[in-house]
Amino acid sequence: MRSFPAALERLTEQFARLPGIGGKTAQRLAFHVLSLPQEDAEVFAQSILEAKRTVHTCRVCQNLTDQDLCAICADPERDQGLICVVAEPRDVVAMERSREYNGVYHVLHGVISPLNHVGPDDLKIRELLNRVAQGGVREVIMATNPDTEGEATAMYLSRLLRPLEVKVTRLAYGIPVGSQLEYADEITLLRALEGRREI
């Protein structure tokens, strides 16, 4: 016997399909949507449909945009010779928060992950290689996550980029600000030592 109407259960199931949303949170979201005034619920639904209809990938960097070029690629102040390679569009947002990077990006839309059946052909690698082969790129910065898949993807890309005679670098990583050395694992400490610089 069902506890709730079928439409409410279907709505809960749809919320539960979102990443990071468990059953209880999905149910809370579904109840919240039902409590919205009709007009607000329609605006919410239209926002989803409009985003699906208008948002696509930038023809240059593969970031999300509603124009032909994303705002970063279209900005004449950005250094087009410096490309930061990230796994997902949300990584662009994280990098932009620093307000220190003035180059452009390339979004792979994932990382190589054999366990999840994601290979090089499933990513936007060909687009990156074509972009670099056109010339004018001095450096490609690998900014994938420092986990097994991110490292494997960065190494794979660096091998592909080497014949194109472009400098390939990796983001330095190590001890987070505000943490304590005693809690750092061996690999983090090793990377911190490798990435040390003169002060």
What topology emerges from the helices and strands here?
Blueprint: H1 6-16, H2 23-35, H3 38-54, E1 56-57, E2 64-65, H4 71-74, E3 79-86, H5 89-97, E4 103-107, H6 125-133, E5 139-142, H7 148-161, E6 167-170, H8 186-194
Parallel strand pairs: 3-4, 3-5, 5-6
Antiparallel strand pairs: 1-2
Report on the structure:
The protein has helices at residues 6-16, 23-35, 38-54, 71-74, 89-97, 125-133, 148-161, 186-194; strands spanning 56-57, 64-65, 79-86, 103-107, 139-142, 167-170. It has 199 residues and is of the alpha/beta class. The protein folds into 2 domains: 6-54, RecR Domain 1 (Helicase, Ruva Protein, domain 3), CATH 1.10.8.420; 79-173, Dna Topoisomerase Vi A Subunit, Chain: A, domain 2. A 4-stranded parallel β-sheet has the order 4-3-5-6. The chain has a two-stranded antiparallel sheet with strand order 1-2. Helix 1 packs across helix 2. The longest helix is centred in the first third of the chain and has 17 residues, at 38-54. The radius of gyration is 21 Å and the shape is globular. It starts with 5 loop residues before the first helix and ends in a 5-residue tail after the last helix.
